[in-house]
Design goal:
Shape: extended
Strand order of the largest sheet: 1-3-2
Radius of gyration: 27 Å
Strand content: under 5%
Helix content: 55-70%
Structural class: mainly alpha
């Protein structure tokens, strides 16, 4: 929400818990995508507080850390690409967890490396010919599939590393118990295997 709308809601609020969910401080609801006309348009940086509810200084910090670009017009106006709105929204949400733009530079480096792999795969699938009217839709579908698969690997790896670091892992005692149970099960099965083995004739 724009800051002026949040201010109005704060002033008229009677239940702060409900209000917190309403303005998105505690909400798990997905953020709304911007309209197509916003994505395909450049917006003055001065409009960011009203459009996205973020401070201009925060937008500048994102640009300083290469998360978005500030485009200079011929008259030296600072413009923001509407396609970067999604990144600004996600980073604004992360800042509520005290994750600042400088902490997100690792994702810029990762995106730069990963984009090369995606480009090679997509060119191999679709080629460079852009005369096909349906090419954009095919590109979108192929990219979404690749993203889902690589994101699944990334998420699983990240979760495993975090949980391991927080000691939410299988303890050594559990490993010993499992090992013992498997050994007993193996010993119980082994006599049956011996009985089933044919006796060689002399």
């Amino acid at each position: 929400m724009p800051l002026n709308v949040i201010k109005q809601k704060l002033e008229s609020a009677t239940d702060l818990s409900t209000l917190a969910f309403e303005i998105g401080l505690l909400s798990d609801l997905p953020m709304k995508a911007q309209p197509k006309e916003s994505k395909q348009k450049l917006h003055p940086i001065e409009d960011m507080p009203d459009l996205l509810g973020v401070e201009i200084s925060f937008v500048r910090s994102l640009a300083e850390n290469d998360l978005i670009r500030i485009i200079k017009s011929p008259q030296n106006r600072e413009l923001i690409d509407g396609r970067d709105f999604e990144i600004i929204r996600y980073c604004a949400e992360l800042s509520r967890f005290h994750i600042e733009p400088r902490n997100l530079r690792q994702y810029v480096s990762a995106a730069n490396r990963e984009s090369t792999m995606f480009e090679q795969v997509l060119i191999g699938m679709l080629g460079m010919d852009d005369s096909d009217d349906d090419r954009a839709a095919k590109l979108e579908r192929a990219f979404s599939k690749l993203h889902d698969l690589t994101d699944g690997v990334r998420t699983a790896l990240l979760k495993n590393r975090v949980f391991e670091s927080l000691n939410a892992i299988v303890e050594d005692a559990d490993v010993d118990t499992i090992d013992e149970q498997l050994s007993r099960a193996d010993q119980a099965v082994r006599p049956g295997r011996l009985k089933a083995m044919p006796i060689p004739r002399r």
